[in-house]
Amino acid sequence: MAKNKKQHIGLIFGGNSSEHDVSKRSAHNIFDAMDKDKYQVSLFLMTKSGYILGNKDSARVFNGEPEDEVAKEALDRLDQKNPLAPIINLSEVANIDVFFPIIHGNLGEDGTIQGLLRLLQKPYVGTGVLGSAMSFDKDITKKILQLAGVTTTRYEVVTPMTSEQFTYQQLSDELGETLFVKPANQGSSVGIHKVENEEDYREGIRDAFRYDSKVLVEEAIEGPEELEISVLGNHHPIVSKVGAIKVPKSDAFYTYDNKFVDASHVEFDVPVDIPASLSEEITKMGLATYQALGLKGMARIDYLVSQDGKPYVSEVNTLPGFTNISLYPQLFAASGISYTELIDRLIQLAIEEYERQSKILYDFKPLDPKEQVIDNKK
């Protein structure tokens, strides 16, 4: 790339999930933080129906025009018989240097958009297909972490095929009187229920099945707060200071409303004052989690801490929020990395990982003694 040439960034946001509007807010913050002397930015909005709009239409929505109206106009112009219609607009800008997907939840964090960008042979910010898919599925995440020796909460998996085999009494005998019911593949606390009796359990299961065909029933860790760290890097990641989220005692847990509707009663303690031994343990667990799941670029890792001070990895977010109240950038700001520098680093990490991946062979080739091995130091 020639010196002084701006890098062309494709910012993909929106998506077909409950976090659509959150993604739009994240995209605005990322766009505002980008150094425009370094970057030219093209916008690609994925509608709630899963169609990607072109830069001009995406910019109209980005600048405040009603999304439904713009999307209808844009989709009316598309040839719906073309099987590539949902993604055809990505072809309008052929010279994208790096894609920055910030689609939270379905299609964005589950490996789908990552697979598409890999097919397009473009660098992209964040974790690859497998790491994204494993981290998005809470059941698979827990299984991997258990194999890696990382402490996580005990749970059972309920599916439509097995739902009649489980009762609240059976599960509470195994996991404790207070249980959490949650969809395996969903974000932002959607479909999550805190249950303490059979009636609430059945209602929670019924609601969770609206969002996924696999549901986790998890033990409750009744600690004072939820702790979080941010991780940045590829093969040698760095970890931020530890932050805390404190929700009102009147709320059972950190709900969707707490996160995105009214956060006025939620306290963010960044960085949080905790014993050094707990901070060290959380950092060690975070790095082990990042490595076990094969994560790249970035992740936010959430922890529950019991009353006796034992931490449990609760959830892994491979495309965390970048809104005004999102903890991922806040934690790194508290650790000495500004929002703008964070964006720069993520883009550079995307390029480094793409270059590393490009050296991997997928067809047989005799070994040349002079051939340089893949560099995993970055």
Q: Can you tell me the CATH class of the largest domain?
A: Alpha Beta
CATH topology of the largest domain: D-amino Acid Aminotransferase, Chain A, domain 1
Give the CATH superfamily of the largest domain: ATP-grasp fold, B domain
End-to-end separation = 20 Å
Query: What does the overall shape look like?
Result: globular
Structural class by secondary-structure content: alpha+beta
How many discrete structural domains?
Answer: 3
Characterise this structure.
- 34% of the residues lie in helices and 19% in strands.
- Strand 8 and strand 9 form a beta hairpin.
- It folds into 3 domains: 118 residues, Rossmann fold (3-Layer(aba) Sandwich); 66 residues, Dna Ligase, domain 1; 131 residues, 2-Layer Sandwich (D-amino Acid Aminotransferase, Chain A, domain 1).
- The protein is an alpha+beta fold.
- The two termini are 20 Å apart.
- About 2% of the residues have low confidence.
- The longest helix has 20 residues.
- It is globular and about 60 Å long.
- Strands 8, 9, 10, 11, 12 and 13 form a 6-stranded antiparallel beta sheet that branches. Strands 4-7-5-6 form a 4-stranded antiparallel beta sheet.
Short description:
With 378 residues, the protein is an alpha+beta fold.
Q: In terms of topology, how is this protein built?
A:
Blueprint (H helix, E strand, L loop, with lengths): L6 E8 L5 H14 L5 E8 L8 H8 L4 H11 L20 E4 L10 H8 L9 H8 L1 H11 L6 E4 L9 H8 L3 E5 L9 E3 L2 H11 L6 E5 L6 E8 L4 E2 L3 E4 L9 H6 L5 E3 L6 H17 L4 E9 L5 E7 L9 H8 L4 H20 L20
Parallel strand pairs: 1-2, 1-3
Antiparallel strand pairs: 4-7, 5-6, 5-7, 8-9, 8-10, 8-12, 10-11, 12-13
